[in-house]
Specification:
It is a single chain. The protein is α/β, with parallel strands linked by helices. It has helices at residues 10-19, 32-37, 52-59, 74-84, 102-107, 122-133, 163-171, 212-215, 232-240, 246-256, 299-317, 329-333, 336-348; strands spanning 2-6, 24-29, 43-46, 64-67, 87-90, 111-113, 136-148, 174-178, 181-185, 191-196, 199-205, 220-228, 266-278, 281-292, 325-326, 352-356. 34% of the residues lie in helices and 29% in strands. α1 crosses α11 (299-317) and α3 (52-59) crosses α4 (74-84).
């Protein structure tokens, strides 16, 4: 299998190490430093990727593309793969609706697996499996967080990704399904406290359901993001006072970003809960995941990169079980054998996953 990996940042690094020379892998990135770290895991190729023609030329002689590019290049990557009739496993988390490309992908006889990360990604896989477990399912809820182990005042959060993307979570309406209708709500309108495994968090509704809004026929579906207590009310005050408005945001980030930049290992936590009936009895079934930074790899890189690498491996091994078209992770989760293999391999990477009846 001749594979090309587009993007060798933190997630691309974990994918490359996981695949560990079991396939003919070419690793593309604009950073020589990133490529140098991975030269033992694939053939490095230095290139700045910035448009569809660029991507089309890069991928044309490969069997499979792994996309780890920024969201603004996600759609361009999908279009280039369809033009070349090459399968794609993507982690760009592009803003466009990947399912809108389903018919075009089928016409070109390719499979596109979008959002093949942690959340969205593994959260979708768990939701798809829960959907299959119930005779009647009323509700699925997802709680997810990536947090510093050390809580530091005043904001109790450590930035490990784009500050602009962090702020967008607090100003972009969250979509969820309530009583069979897709609705939008202010993400900070409702701030709840929640206790998970002896830890107290606060949560807000976040816009991470993406393909799940279309693929699961369910009355109620929601996602919340977890923060340490004391973070969200301060963020809400800043937002309501217009500190996150376009004209003020840069100055705001200059002040608050240093307050969220400190030494601490991170951890990832997730609950995916299903409510419904089995044999006419009301039941609750839950997934619980926990992971911490290990061996110099942040937890968020681990849970995202290992999930993606395992999906790549599973797709290659069981290619006959994947139809053409856009196949988000919740569709994979509906297949018990594929789901079980992915979960078992994540556990082998020392990621703690419980299935609680």
């Amino acid at each position: 299998m001749n594979i090309i990996l587009l993007g060798a940042g933190r997630i691309g690094e974990v994918i490359s190490v996981y695949l560990n020379n079991r396939f003919d892998l070419t690793i593309v990135d604009s950073s020589q430093n990133n490529l140098k770290k991975l030269e033992n895991y694939g053939k490095p190729k230095k290139c700045r990727i910035n448009n569809k023609n660029n991507i089309t030329e890069l991928i044309k002689n490969y069997d499979l593309v792994i996309g780890c590019l920024p969201g603004k290049l996600g759609l361009k990557t999908m279009k280039a793969c369809m033009e070349n009739q090459i399968d794609l496993i993507d982690l760009s988390f592009m803003p466009e609706d990947s399912l809108s490309l389903d018919e075009e992908a089928k016409k070109n006889n390719i499979t596109i697996i979008p959002d093949a990360g942690f959340a969205p990604g593994l959260s979708n896989l768990f939701a798809g499996r829960l959907y299959q477990k119930f005779d009647e399912i009323d509700e699925i809820g997802i709680r997810v967080g990536g947090l510093p182990i050390k809580k530091k005042s005043p904001l109790y959060y450590k930035i490990t990704w784009s500050p602009h993307d962090l702020i967008s979570e607090y100003i972009r309406n969250a979509r969820l399904i309530k009583n069979n209708e897709i609705i939008e709500i202010d993400p900070l309108e409702i701030i709840n406290k929640v206790r998970i495994k002896n830890n107290d968090f606060e949560e807000f509704f976040s816009d991470g359901l993406r393909t799940l809004l279309s693929t699961l026929d369910i009355s109620n579906l929601w996602e919340t993001t977890l923060r340490w207590e004391g973070h969200l009310n301060k963020i809400k005050i800043l937002r309501d006072l217009n500190f996150f408005n376009k004209e003020n945001l840069q100055n705001t980030l200059k002040i608050i970003s240093p307050l969220m930049d400190y030494e601490s290992k991170d951890f990832s936590i997730m609950e995916v809960i299903g409510y419904g009936k089995i044999n006419n009895k009301k039941r609750e079934i839950k997934y619980y995941l926990y992971d911490e930074e290990k061996n110099g790899l942040s937890s968020m890189s681990r849970v995202t990169g290992f999930t993606a690498g395992i999906i790549v491996e599973t797709f290659i091994k069981y290619s006959d079980e994947f139809e053409n078209g856009v196949i988000p992770p919740e569709i994979i989760g509906k297949n018990k054998n594929l789901h079980d293999e992915i979960v078992d391999k994540l556990k082998q990477k020392d990621i703690h996953i419980e299935y609680i009846l």
